[in-house]
Automatic annotation (TrEMBL):
Descriptive protein name: UmuC domain-containing protein
GO molecular function: damaged DNA binding; DNA-directed DNA polymerase activity
Compositional bias of kind Low complexity: 566-579
Feature: compositional bias, Basic residues: 648-664
Keyword annotations from UniProtKB, A to Z: DNA synthesis, Membrane, Transferase, Transmembrane, Transmembrane helix
Classification of source organism: Eukaryota, Metazoa, Chordata, Craniata, Vertebrata
Complete-protein stretch covered: 1 to 685 of 904
Signal peptide: none
UniProt-listed GO biological process terms: DNA repair; translesion synthesis
Family the UniProt entry places it in: Belongs to the DNA polymerase type-Y family.
Residue span of region Disordered: 556-579, 645-668
Domain UmuC: 37-248
Taxonomy, superkingdom: Eukaryota
Species of origin: Danionella cerebrum
Length: 685
DNA sequence: AAGCAATAG
DNA sequence: GGTTCTATTGCTT
């Protein structure tokens, strides 16, 4: 508010005073600016979900394990000294009887999480998620209504749960709204318990920051209200800046340089000096935060804006391993995307490299639009980041779909791109050939159809969807796969895309991927194309089911103004608990259908420069990376038969930055870094 | 608008 | 600074 130039004295006191005056002033005048914000925080969320799934666990010390750590544990385990984020070995030392449940697959947690959000939204639409186990709710209006509608005698009211800093408080005119908020918080906690079986804590205050901070005062399964007059006490009780939501590691490091380590330090630090280090906006924000001031609104989130999947590991150092891991991630992601019903417009690959000084940080990412071939594109992004000719050591891979777009009735080029059908029958290749016993390679066509056809095209007969989705039995290697082309009306445009690619390829092998395989495996695969391998089928237990709608109707996107009709249920109710299974058995092999027309002049030019005999879809950069003998072989090939493949365009000019360069040594002209359709040509021959 | 850093649970 | 698996927001370009 009044941030005049005078930088005298104590900014902290002034801030608090200002805040108080606002509150009091508004009380006198309108009081409308006083919000009532609730914060809900489920108790040891993952552990509760597992205890619901298996009630026998309730009486046992339970730890949820991800890799080698206990991410959370139930209260039985806590009583025995187990804590969050403890290593499994430490935890077992403390508590030998600890029962461990793997928690790397978040499906069940995610589903339950959205049920909680939906339940809250059924009482009031203003619900903001924070992670899987927390929700903010702005109940200001609801409180106001209840205050008026129910002719409430103040004497009939009492605070439910605790009131921060008090053993007992009378409800008076100044705090009625918070008192009503506490009643609502209790009602919602009760509703969550009776309908979902989950317990949790709640905080009641006048802003998000304070509601969150106060909600943890009494745990578990309790709630606390913060009266405005206790704000300074609450903030002062925090043991360090790390306890202030919104002040993270990086910010703390910078503050440390200024000698600021405690909440008080930052409260009393001159704002102008803070501005020098952080800039106007940030400086004001963090100083407000430590004073308990937070004007940020409760923003309903609607469906997620991105879906990602990742895995971490000790070491991945070959492109083959990268490929397999990405494939695994893509399977889960594409299934989730399918259930979501929207379409991703961008794909992002993120890696974490091992470095001795910085073992777990340092994530680097590249993204690209128009998701043409998922796996191939992933590998392309990978190469954009990592020079595979040099040794590398990754400890994490993440694949993310974002830029999600609702249904779309077939207008945008991207949209129609995704809905292209007409891929010929897919062929499955026995992956035993490359050390992946019992894995099944699905064609990219399968994947695309699984993801994008069922929900997005009303004309799609459910049956074909089903047959596509029930993988195994019906999808034996080389078994015919239902073809959709016919009914997908509008999508068929761009026939040029299909020609060459869809019909001439003998196998649904992604060229880029193929290229990465060792030579002997490449040869074996080529053999298999004519032999039809009999890979073990994956035994996915159930067929694909559309998620039971969880009354998502409530999710009227506030910000996604557009009709997000479909995406009906964005909570992923997993029809089956296949996540685990899925990890173990299928591998998706994307085929090169999706080659997209090249519309990028830059690319064309570069391509020309490369060689006039090269098909238009050949990426000069990729081409340049091939062994010399392969290059000449290809050129020979091209002179004889000119395949009609197209290449994804998009993304041409400026993709380079510092890191890029280092990742892609020579070849500064790798403008678009288009895909390697090169090998698909190779295969066709 | 895209890419990424920072933040959080 | 744990660690893991996400997801969002807001600089920066």
């Amino acid at each position: 508010m009044d941030k005049d130039e005078e930088s005298d004295g104590n900014d902290w006191d002034r801030s608090l005073e200002t805040d108080m005056m606002e509150i009091e002033g508004s009380c006198n005048a309108t009081l409308k600016s006083q919000r009532v914000v609730l914060h809900f925080d489920l108790d040891c969320f993952y552990a509760q979900v597992e205890m619901i799934r298996n009630p026998a666990l309730r009486t046992k010390p339970l730890g949820i394990q991800q890799k080698n750590i206990i991410v959370t544990c139930n209260y039985v385990a806590r009583d025995q000294g187990v804590n969050k984020l403890m290593s499994v070995s430490d935890a077992l030392e403390k508590c030998p009887q600890l029962v461990l449940v793997k928690g790397e697959d978040l499906t069940h947690y995610r589903e339950m999480s959205y049920k909680v959000t939906e339940l809250l939204m059924s009482h009031c639409p203003l619900v903001e998620r924070l992670g899987f186990d927390e929700n903010y709710m702005d109940v200001t209006e609801m409180v106001e209504r209840r205050l008026k509608e129910t002719i409430q005698e103040i004497s009939d009211l009492s605070f439910r749960g605790h009131v921060y800093g008090y053993d007992c408080v009378a409800v008076d005119r100044e705090n009625v709204r918070l008192a009503i908020g506490s009643v609502m918080a209790e009602e919602m906690r009760q509703a969550i318990y009776t309908t979902l079986g989950l317990t949790g804590c709640a905080g009641v205050a006048c802003n998000k920051l304070l509601a969150k901070l106060v909600s943890g005062s009494f745990k578990p399964n309790q709630q606390t209200t913060l009266l405005p007059q206790s704000t300074a006490e609450l903030m002062g009780s925090l043991t360090g800046l790390s306890k202030v939501p919104g002040i993270g590691y990086k910010t703390r490091e910078k503050l440390k340089v200024l000698g600021l380590v405690s909440v008080r330090d930052l409260q009393s630090f001159p704002l102008p000096d803070l501005v020098k280090e952080f800039g106007e906006g940030m400086a004001q924000r963090i100083q407000n935060l430590v004073c308990g001031v937070d004007e940020s609104p409760v923003t309903p989130a609607g469906p997620p804006q991105s879906l990602s999947d990742e895995d971490s590991f000790k070491k991945i150092s070959t492109p083959e391993e990268v490929l397999r891991k990405i494939e695994e991630l893509l399977i889960n992601l594409t299934e989730r995307m399918n259930k979501d019903g929207r379409q991703p417009n961008t794909l992002r690959l993120t890696v974490r490299r091992y470095t001795s000084t910085n073992r777990w940080f340092n994530r680097e990412s590249r993204s690209s639009d128009a998701v043409p071939q998922l796996l191939a594109l992933s590998m392309k992004l990978f190469h954009k980041m990592i020079d595979a000719h040099q040794p590398f050591h990754l400890t994490l891979l993440n694949v993310c779909f974002s830029n999600l777009q609702a249904k779309s009735s077939g207008k945008s080029s991207i949209t129609s791109f995704f809905s292209q059908k007409s891929l010929s029958a897919s062929q499955e290749v026995d992956s035993d050939l490359h050390d992946l016993p019992t894995k099944t390679l699905l064609s990219k066509a399968d994947v695309l159809h699984k993801i994008w056809t069922p929900i997005n095209h009303k004309s799609q007969p459910p049956k074909s969807v089903k047959s596509l989705i029930t993988p195994k039995s019906s999808a034996l290697p080389n078994a015919p796969v239902p073809v959709y082309s016919e009914e997908t009306n509008t999508d068929i445009k761009e026939p040029s895309l299909m020609s060459g690619v869809c019909f001439s390829l003998p196998a649904d092998v992604d060229p880029e991927v193929f290229r990465l395989l060792p030579d002997h495996i490449q040869r074996e695969l080529m053999l298999s194309f004519t032999n039809k391998g009999s890979g073990e089928v994956n035994n996915r237990p159930t067929e694909y089911l559309y998620p039971a709608e969880h009354s998502l109707s409530d999710f009227k996107q506030p910000r996604t103004t557009g009709t997000c009709e479909s995406a009906a249920s964005y909570n992923q109710s997993s029809a089956s608990n296949d996540s685990e299974l899925c990890k173990d058995h299928s591998i998706t092999h994307l085929n090169p259908e999706l080659i997209t027309p090249t519309k990028n002049p830059d690319f064309q030019q570069a391509n020309q420069a490369l060689h006039s005999d090269a098909p238009a879809n050949v990426d000069p950069y990729v081409f340049s990376q091939l062994p010399a003998d392969v290059q000449s072989e290809l050129l020979t090939e091209w002179r004889q038969q000119r395949p009609v493949l197209k290449i994804p365009s998009k993304h041409s000019s400026k993709t380079s930055n510092g890191r890029n360069k280092k990742a892609t040594p020579k070849n500064s002209q790798m403008k678009g870094a288009k895909l390697a359709v090169v090998l698909s040509v190779f295969l066709v021959s």
